[in-house]
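Protocol step 4 of 6: structure prediction from sequence.
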Amino acid sequence: MIVHKIHLPHSKNSAESETVTLPLPHRAIISTAQHVGAVCTPTVKVGDRVKIGDVIADSDAVMSAPVHASISGTVSEFTEVLHISGRNMPAIVIESDGLGEISGDIKPPVINSREDFLDAVRRSGSIGLGGAGFPTSMKLGFDPKEKQPDKLIINGAECEPYITSDYRCFIEEGEKVLDGALQIMKYLDIPECIIGIEDNKPKAIAKMRELCASHPNVTIFPLKSSYPQGAEKTLIYSTTKRVVKEGTLPIACGCIVINSSTCAFISDYLKTGMPLVSRRITVDGNIVKKPANFIAAVGMSIGEIVYYAELCAEPDRIILGGPMMGACAFELDYPLSKTNNAVLLFNNSPVYKPTACIRCGRCVRACSMGLMPTAIETAFDLRDAKKLDALNVNLCVNCGACSFVCPAKRNLAEKNQLAKAFLREQANSIKGA
C-alpha cells in the first residue's frame, strides 16, 4: 500500500497557550444530535429545572450517546439548530440560574467488569472528540467472540492546520490520556497500545514517553508530519502496516482507534462521574488577536467563546473544525457541540472560481486512499453508480487534499461526498424496491 500525502502550513499559533476555562454562559442551546447516529429524544420539558450533568436527552438506539445539561437552570424552550449535515436538528434551551449547581446523580461509576465499563462509557455521553463524533461505547462495544483486537491506537496526530486542542491535552493532561488508555486495555483485554503523535510536536512526544516509561505495553509512535496522518485508516497503516479494507471497520484488522482527548475524558469520568458537558476548543484565524484554547460548556455560543480571544475585524468565514475538513457556520450565534474541536475566523477570504480540469494528476498523487478524484467527479456528473462503485468512492476519507492541490480549483472533495451520498440513495432505493 502506497500512502500518498501532502504538506500543509501548520499555523499552530495557540500551541504554547495554556488552556483557559471560560465562565459558564447565561444560556445554553444544546442540540440533541451531538454525535454520529440516532438523534436523541428530550427527557425534559419546558419549565423543568436542571443541574450540570443531568440527562436531558437520550435514545435506545445502539449508535447513540446521552446528552447532558452543561449549566444549571430552567429549560425555557425547544428550538432547532442547523446541523453539520445541513438539516435542522432539535435543540434544548436552558436559561442559567447563575448557580452552576452539580447534579446529585454525579458520582464515579462502580466498575467490576467489561459490561460495567461499557455501560459507564455510554452513560458518560462520550463521543469521538477529534471531530468525527462516533459514540465511544459503540466503538468499544465489539463482540470479543467475533473479533478481539490486539492493538489500541490513540490518535494524537492533529494534522490539520491551526488546531492544537489535542496537543494541549497531551501537555496539560497527559496523565489522563495514559490512564484512559490503560483502563480501556484493562477492561477490554487489549494487550498493546500505540500512541501516535506527529513529529512536529516534540514536547508532547517527550511528555508521553516520560509518562509511559514504566508501561512496556504502551508505545509512543512519532508520526511523520503530513496530511492526512490523523485519518483513521492512514494512522492504522502508519503505526501497524495493517490495511483496513473497503467496507470493513478497523477492528477487522485487530485495531481500535480512540482520540487522545476522548481517552483523557474517559479517565476523568471514571474518577469523577462528570459526563461530557464541556470540551477544549481552539480559537484561531487571521482576525483573532489572541489565538487560544478554551474549555467551554457544550451549548455555549461560538460568539461568546471567541470574545475571549478578541477579534480585530468582522469574520466573513467561520469554520467549525479545521480548514480542510471543517464546516462553515453562518453566524457566531451557533452553539458549541461535543464534536467542535476548533473555531477558525477569517476576513478577506479568497473566493475561487473553478476552471476546466487540466489533467495534471495532482489530485491522484495527493489522495491518501489512492483514488482518482477527477474520474469520480465525471462519474458523479453522469450519475453513473456502477462507475462510482468501481472507482471505490466509498474509500474517500473526506480529507480535502484533492481540492487543496487542484490548480483549477475544482470542488473535488465536495463531489466525492455527493457521490457517496448518491450511492447510498441508490442502494436504499434498490432495497426499498
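Step 5 (inspection) to follow. Residues 28 and 299 are 4 Å apart (CA to CA).
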